[in-house]
Design goal:
The protein is mainly α. Helices cover 87% and strands 2% of the residues. The longest helix is centred in the last third of the chain and has 37 residues.
């Protein structure tokens, strides 16, 4: 394919081999993260106590969103590195839903932070404000809010795209969809404003939870500080999501000047800014949440117990057949 020459750059086979090794490593990482996310989704949907709790409904929504984002973004990464071209209309459609998905992750993190704020600072109203029905409404609101900047951006680039051929084949990157420099600035400014608002909410919740932790009694202080740690991790995840949206501006300045450097930077950004936030989610709730961790642990132990029972059963059958053959 024509794209393979650009992947190799000047035709250096060693560079191509290095990129192939990196791509293979990324596929292993994605497979592990997807397996962990699916395992946690099964645990979530298997217990009624999780499906009726705002905290876990939001967590399940983020896991589903992360699975979709990892699959599609990885597909685009493979298309890009191996020079696979897609139709213009398909590329626009993929990036539209991918942008909504990334915004939904940030909005879900903000909603989960607000839930922790209510649980720690307004515990008496937590059951009323964070009911299961309100959680479903929050998921719908997250989808609507996440769509607004994406609709505005794609409405801005649509006129320039219409002038061309919707059936035109191209390498599917956001840069190829932006016909004018102001398209890139519009997208970056819109998403930056969104994330500044979300960051303001998270900082507000962090400060209030920290005050509540300092003023709490010894018995409640541990729970407050645990909530403070959760909010801190959400803030770090949100920062990575924000950097992912701002990175294309830097990538566009390098693209075309040094192809090898551009490939390495693009891969590094994908691992650090896309994979890392999606693997933090299981760590935050799968390992730090006591109730959910017990359920996960029970599933692992039950699976191990079933394997041991099968092994014992097979051994017994083997001994029985050996005894029968001797007699």
């Amino acid at each position: 394919m024509a794209g393979n020459s650009s992947l190799v750059g000047s035709g250096d086979l060693q560079a191509r081999s290095n990129f192939n090794s990196i791509i293979n490593f990324i596929q292993v990482l994605i497979a592990v993260f997807l397996a962990i996310n699916v395992f946690q989704l099964v645990a979530l949907f298997s217990k009624e106590q999780f499906t009726s709790s705002t905290r876990y409904i939001l967590f399940g929504n983020m896991l589903l969103n992360d699975c979709w984002f990892l699959l599609v973004s990885n597909l685009l990464l493979l298309f890009y590195f191996f020079g696979v071209a897609t139709d213009l209309w398909l590329c626009m459609l993929i990036y539209f839903f991918l942008a909504i998905s990334n915004m939904a992750t940030a909005c879900t993190l903000t909603a989960m932070t607000l839930e922790r704020y209510v649980a720690v600072c307004v515990p008496l109203r937590h059951a009323d404000l964070c009911s299961g029905r309100r959680a479903l409404g929050a998921v719908a609101l997250i989808g609507a809010v996440s769509s607004v900047p994406c609709v505005v951006f794609f409405a801005a680039i649509l006129p320039s795209v219409i002038r061309g051929d919707f059936a035109e084949e191209l390498r599917c990157t956001i840069h190829n969809l932006e016909a004018y420099p102001w398209h890139n600035y519009l997208r970056s400014v819109m998403f930056l404003l969104y994330f500044m608002a979300m960051a303001g909410v998270i900082v507000f919740c962090y400060v209030r939870i920290m005050k509540a932790a300092n003023a709490a009694s010894a018995g409640d202080r541990a729970a407050s500080r645990k909530g403070l740690g959760t909010v801190s991790l959400h803030a770090f995840q949100l920062l990575l999501c924000l950097l992912y949206l701002l990175v294309p501006m830097g990538e566009k300045a390098i693209e075309g000047q040094n192809n090898a450097l551009f490939q390495y930077i693009r891969t590094f950004n994908y691992v650090v800014l896309i994979l890392t936030p999606r693997c933090l989610s299981p760590l935050v709730y799968g390992l730090r949440d006591e109730m959910f961790f017990k359920v996960l642990k029970s599933y692992v132990l039950c699976g191990r117990a079933r394997q041991e029972r099968r092994l014992v059963h097979c051994c017994r059958r083997g001994r029985r057949r050996s005894w029968l053959s001797k007699t």
